[in-house]
Design a protein that fits this description.
The protein is mainly alpha-helical. Helices cover 74% and strands 0% of the residues. It contains seven helices and no strands. The two termini are 21 Å apart.
């Protein structure tokens, strides 16, 4: 590069100096290990975050102000609507008062074509069905019309009242008749009961008389029949006692009241029992059940010990795994620290190389700054 004595342009010099300063700032940010983050500009991100928070706060304040204004506008609109409704009611009330005071029917002067009562006022109604003034063409007499309806209704009410009183009287008479019939029935039942009591007394007296007569006849027949009767009664009592003794003996010696377990065996299936004859388990069965329970207890104890041993094994394995994980973490920390140290030394070496290159550029390459005249000459020669 040749040295040319050309006066430099102040703006160009300022722009180049600004670019150099920005490049130095960027290099200081990039090559600073403590504050540098790979591919991320923390200060720019923080400034963006602050700007976003400021923008959100501004929007929230605007929305709050807009909500306040909207509430105020709503209140004003409600007040205006109430005022309009009140104004409409007042106007309607004034119009109605004006019509009632100034536009009455008696004060009108024009003829009303749509007055529904004018014909009634011109032609009064008839006074009865035999009024000769109104014929069929007058449309005042209609079939089925009754002017004496009030008198008919009064007559019907009187007739209804009479029929109602008659019904009440009949009901009272029916109640009286029922009471009389109930009283007669009670008297009849009482008489029948008295008659039955008298018949029972007569029957009892006849039975006592018959028994006394039979006893007298037996006494008159002699002591031979009495001895036969006593002997017969004794034999019947003895036979009854023997039957009772045999039944007791059978119950005692039968399988019903014994403790024999063979009674409960099923005649077809020996492995089954009869529930209604079961006397309980035999000693052999109880011994076998106890043996099975003892075997189950031993198996349960062995299973419990195996589970405890397995739990201890799992705990030891978990402890070894935790220790191995701690050792791996320690190795990972050491590798990370070594990597950070190597990266720091590499960054320092890179910074030194960058600095040496920049010094080379500034001291050897960029020693003579081109001026505006140089650029003009270069452009003219290129053209």
């Amino acid at each position: 590069m040749y040295k040319v004595d050309v006066s430099p342009d102040p703006k160009e010099v300022a722009a180049i100096e600004a670019r150099r300063n920005r490049e130095k700032d960027r290099q200081s940010r990039f090559f600073n290990v403590r504050t540098r983050v790979m591919g991320v500009d923390v200060k720019a991100l923080n400034s963006q975050v602050e700007e976003r928070k400021l923008r959100e706060a501004t929007e929230q304040s605007k929305e709050a102000a807009y909500g306040t204004y909207q509430m105020q506008y709503d209140l004003v609109a409600q007040m205006l609507e109430k005022e309009q409704a009140e104004r409409t009611r007042r106007l309607a009330r004034k119009v109605q008062e004006f019509r009632e005071q100034k536009q009455q029917l008696k004060n009108r002067q024009e003829f009303d074509f749509w007055d529904p009562g004018r014909f009634c006022m011109e032609f009064p109604g008839r006074f009865g069905d035999s009024d000769p003034y109104y014929g069929p063409a007058s449309l005042q007499c209609f079939a089925g019309e009754d002017l004496d309806r009030a008198a008919c209704l009064k007559m019907q009410q009187e007739q209804f009242k009479y029929s109602l009183e008659r019904q009440l009287q009949e009901q009272r008479q029916v109640k009286v008749d029922e009471k009389c019939s109930d009283m007669l029935n009670d008297q009849l039942r009482l008489a029948m009961d008295m008659r039955a009591t008298q018949l029972a007394k007569l029957e009892e007296s006849c039975r006592v008389a018959m028994m006394s007569a039979m006893a007298n006849a037996n006494k008159a027949q002699g002591p031979h029949q009495a001895a036969e009767l006593a002997e017969r009664q004794r034999r019947e009592h003895q036979r009854e006692q023997e039957a009772n003794f045999m039944e007791i003996q059978n119950q005692i010696t039968s399988d019903l009241l014994t403790e024999n377990p063979q009674v409960a065996q099923h005649p077809v299936a020996p492995h089954r029992v009869l529930p209604y004859c079961w006397k309980g388990m035999t000693p052999e069965q109880r011994t076998a059940i106890r043996k099975v329970q003892e075997v189950q207890r031993h198996e349960k104890e062995a299973q419990r010990q195996a589970e405890q041993a397995l739990d201890v094994k799992w705990e030891n394995q978990a402890l070894h795994s935790a220790q191995a994980a701690m050792e791996l973490e320690e190795q990972e920390r050491e590798l990370c620290a070594e990597f950070r140290r190597g990266l720091g030394s590499f960054n320092q070496q890179l910074a030194m190389e960058q600095k040496a290159q920049q010094n080379y550029l500034n001291s050897i390459i960029y020693t003579n700054q081109p001026t505006t005249q140089y650029h003009l000459q270069f452009n003219t020669s290129s053209r």
